[in-house]
Amino acid sequence: MNKKSLLNLTNLEISEIMELINLAKKCEDGDFNNIYNNKIVANLFFEPSTRTQYSFETAELKLGIKPINFNQETSSIKKGESFYDTIKTFESFQTSAIIIRSNIDKYYEQLNGINIPIINAGDGVCDHPSQSLLDLYTIYKHFKTFNGIKIAIVGDIKHSRVAHTNIDIMNRLGMETYISGPEIFNDHTSKYIDFDQAITEMDVIMLLRIQHERHQFKEITNINEYHEKFGLDMKRVNKMKRNSIIMHPAPFNRGVEISDDVVECEKSKIFQQIENGVFIRMAILYKALEKEVKQW
Amino acid sequence: MNKKSLLNLTNLEISEIMELINLAKKCEDGDFNNIYNNKIVANLFFEPSTRTQYSFETAELKLGIKPINFNQETSSIKKGESFYDTIKTFESFQTSAIIIRSNIDKYYEQLNGINIPIINAGDGVCDHPSQSLLDLYTIYKHFKTFNGIKIAIVGDIKHSRVAHTNIDIMNRLGMETYISGPEIFNDHTSKYIDFDQAITEMDVIMLLRIQHERHQFKEITNINEYHEKFGLDMKRVNKMKRNSIIMHPAPFNRGVEISDDVVECEKSKIFQQIENGVFIRMAILYKALEKEVKQW
Amino acid sequence: MNKKSLLNLTNLEISEIMELINLAKKCEDGDFNNIYNNKIVANLFFEPSTRTQYSFETAELKLGIKPINFNQETSSIKKGESFYDTIKTFESFQTSAIIIRSNIDKYYEQLNGINIPIINAGDGVCDHPSQSLLDLYTIYKHFKTFNGIKIAIVGDIKHSRVAHTNIDIMNRLGMETYISGPEIFNDHTSKYIDFDQAITEMDVIMLLRIQHERHQFKEITNINEYHEKFGLDMKRVNKMKRNSIIMHPAPFNRGVEISDDVVECEKSKIFQQIENGVFIRMAILYKALEKEVKQW
Fold first, then answer.
1. Which residues contact B22 (CB under 8 A, 6 or more apart)?
2. What's the pTM value of the predicted model, to 2 decimals?
3. Is the Cβ of C85 closer than 8 Å to some Cβ of chain A?
4. Which helix (H) or strand (E) holds C20?
5. Do C148 and C264 share a domain, yes or no?
6. I need a labelling partner for C23 at 20 to 30 A (CA). Which of A119, B158, B294, C123 fits?
7. What are the phi and psi torsion angles at C246 (to 5°)?
8. Residue B112 near chain A (CB below 8 Å)
């Protein structure tokens, strides 16, 4: 496994997180546009994705990197080729890095034989480091600090790779993290807080997507009930603290965890998160390819 | 909605049409190759397409634009993300423009919240402005004028977004427009002319694709009968006026509305239309991105 | 048909093969990086592919060519557009060459009306010239000659486009070719050799993928039996000649025609073949576009 791989945030030092955030700022300022001219990076998404997939591609294009977008539906996966052999093939093409999303938990444990950087774009229910980093970048841009910032993550914590990665890294960065939403989703990875209390006390309300198509969800509640109890509508937004913000990794369900008119309200950072996602992914790629002097 | 969007031709002045045609000539001459180096444009095709999709991509590449090609099958659309939120995501990536084809009539009425140029690559049964413009460019290249040029559009006028856009703009440009083909498809948007009379009198015979897989078509007629009555074969081609031309937006059905040997005959401009489509789409993109000074 | 098309190896002179091999070396050395800046090449894969598809794309990117990747699932093929008309459309876009893989034997016989170079990336059970050329390049890099090199191709010779192309060209280049594996697959296109005899006598053991999902295969044998009789495991590898090598066009079935631990063993050139595939495809594209002076 290449040392420049980004698999999760667990082994990243706080100083490394801050370096990525500072690099993202430089990326946003255009300092690194086209610096990696002529490098090739392969994007292998084995799960549906809009934001992560296309913002990695956008980040690559802005850095001057030439993307190759793998489509498993028209690949030799259809002839039974394995995950490892597929990744090894792209390594053999001498691509500079590989971006991978897979529904396999810790898929990268199968990839010890791969010697180029692997960037984890989401693995099963485990990690989604680039999402966490863009969340951090968004929070840092707004509050200029992490210290003492209070966040409640609301919704299906149990099945969210975003929530787990975020709670861990945010605690390490000195933020106060809480979880809220239906008790059934509470996995006790952080302190629980009542939703309406969170509304008035938090600096950040981070909503998660309710997978209301899931069987388990249908058993315990319904959409209207959820919206009533845990949905963020303008009535609740108006009770939020003055400088507080709303976040959501998206895709979101309008009318379920978030009201239609909240999505683009003043406090909402949802589309800024998407915008920031491009810059943080440029920063991640910058680090992964840094000092890679071999030219083709 | 960004003012530089191209949604239909209804609001375009004749002078603006002529400007696009002149720009297409410059594009064909290579004057604008690579001028938009480093800009990113997203192509979102929600309906199957070969010509429109890949000629927009070709046009982008020739202008130096970097395309991002959205594939709805591997996107968050699969998780229920809405059309608007998908488009808003690409706007958040700071792409310079978005090309959209959708089967939703006037889909762009849902996109008032989008602030970057939207280029309509076909919406439901309503409009297909870039197709009309390439038809106009093809006619103008051949006749050097629109004034008094007689065209008959033949086939399923009723369900054709090309026909409606063309009839309107061609009339405004001083052309004489007729419709022909089975009476059942006559929606009286222009004067009806008998097909064999059209053959001898028109400057342009524009055939439309017969969707012979449609249930309604099977009820009223069959393929052989259609070909007999309204199919363009060499016998009919030989009766056409000396300087007249044959057009078809494609895909076409060989042996239904057009004989095999007519497709690439001397009078046929079908593949030139496809070629011209690249240049007119370069012109459209040139206009959409013009004076956009923000660089990344 | 354009003279610069590469359809099969039958009509290539030995000198032309050697020229391609020498060009591949230059490509590997980076001599041709970005020389075809701004040219567009279309990749049309009508069959699943990982190696061939993405290594052609990688080769294009390295040469500076801008690829357009056709996806038949979202194309007008879905509306019934023909193979010829689809290819003709890409020619009309003025792409510099077209790469085609299709399950139709000798599909290129339908393409006489196409005037730009066609590069055959595999047609039905007939030919796969770029695969053969990368095999040759791999052999030549290792042995520095073809003369007298002994190769056994092992497996389903009958249904392999790789085997037939290879046997013919390797014989012409002075190699000694043998076929091995189950008698049922022996089509007598070369001398048959017992597998365990081949192991000890050959310079190259080239394994083919066993399509064990095929009905016919299930009838005659099973996976374990095949692996026992014709599978390459480390016990057999240890009996191979000192300077001998193992090849496989991939995808391979670990545990069927090849043991897990053989795939990346010292003698295995499997991933080098993939790496060499990029360089030989660069060489093929270099030749196809050479002296094409028309710029856009």
1. none
2. 0.94
3. no
4. helix C14-28
5. yes
6. C123
7. -115, 135
8. no
Nearest chain B CA: its distance from A95 CA (Å): 19
Rounded distance between C-alpha atoms, residue B244 and residue C141, angstroms: 60
What is the structure's pLDDT at C294?
Answer: 42
> Which of C61, C100, C209 has the most A C-beta neighbours within 10 Å, making it the best mutation to test the interface with A?
C61
The confidence score (pLDDT) of residue B158 equals: 86
Our count of domains for chain B comes to: 2
Q: Is C11 exposed, middle or buried (0-12, 13-18, 19+ CB in 10 A)?
A: exposed
Q: How far is B42 from chain A (nearest CA, A)?
A: 10
Strand pairing class (C176-180; C191-192): parallel
Q: How many other CB atoms are there within 10 angstroms of residue C147's CB atom? A: 10
Give contacts of A70 with chain C, Cβ < 8 Å: 50, 54
| Block residue for tokens 């960037």 | A119
- Residue A211 pLDDT greater than 90, yes or no: no
Q: Which residues pair with C207 in a beta bridge?
A: C154
Asked whether residue A139 falls in the same domain as residue A258, the answer is yes
Q: Within this chain, do residues C98 and C71 fall inside the same structural domain, yes or no? A: yes
Same-domain pairing of C110 and C64: yes
CB nearest A61 (choices: B40, B82, B86): B40
A55 touching B, CB under 8 A?
yes
pLDDT of residue A108: 96
Question: Same structural domain for residues B82 and B139?
Answer: no
ipTM of the complex: 0.92
CB A156 within 8 A of CB A147: no
Distance CA C155, CA C179 (A): 8
Does residue A7 sit within a domain? no
Inter-chain CB proximity A89 and C51 less than 8 Å: yes
- Tell me the helix, strand and coil percentages in chain A, rounded to 5: 45, 15, 40
**Cross-chain Cβ contact A30/B86 below 8 Å:** no
Do A186 and A68 share a domain, yes or no? no
The verdict on C35 touching A (C-beta cutoff 8 Å) is: no
Q: pLDDT tens digit string along A158-209? A: 888 889 889 999 999 999 999 999 988 888 889 999 999 999 999 999 999 9
What distance in Å separates the CA atoms of residue C30 and residue A296, rounded to the nearest whole number?
6
**Residue of A55, A71, A251 with shortest CB distance to B76:** A251
**pLDDT (0 to 100) of residue B257:** 95
Closest in C54, C62, C252 to A70, CB measured: C54
Residue A8 inside a domain? The answer is no
Place of tokens 């190696």: C51
Q: For residue C214, what pLDDT is reported?
A: 65
- A11 burial level (CB within 10 Å; 0-12, 13-18, 19+): exposed
pLDDT at C161: 82
Pair (A114, A180) in one structural domain: no
One-letter amino acid of B171 = N
Backbone phi, psi, residue B41, to 5°:
-125, 140
Q: Would an 8 Å CB–CB cutoff place C43 in contact with chain A? A: no
pLDDT of residue B295: 43
Q: Across the beta sheet with B66-70, what order do the strands follow?
A: B66-70, B40-45, B97-102, B118-123
Instruction: Give the pLDDT of residue A214.
Output: 65
**CATH code for the domain of C57:** 3.40.50.1370
Under the banding of pLDDT at 50, 70 and 90, the label for residue A261 is very high
Domain extent for C72? 14-127+275-289
Mean pLDDT of successive 10-residue segments in chain B (296 residues)?
Answer: 88 91 92 91 96 97 96 90 96 96 95 95 92 97 97 92 90 97 89 97 96 67 89 98 97 95 98 97 94 48
Is the CB of residue A105 less than 8 Å away from at least one CB of chain C? no
pLDDT of residue A216: 67
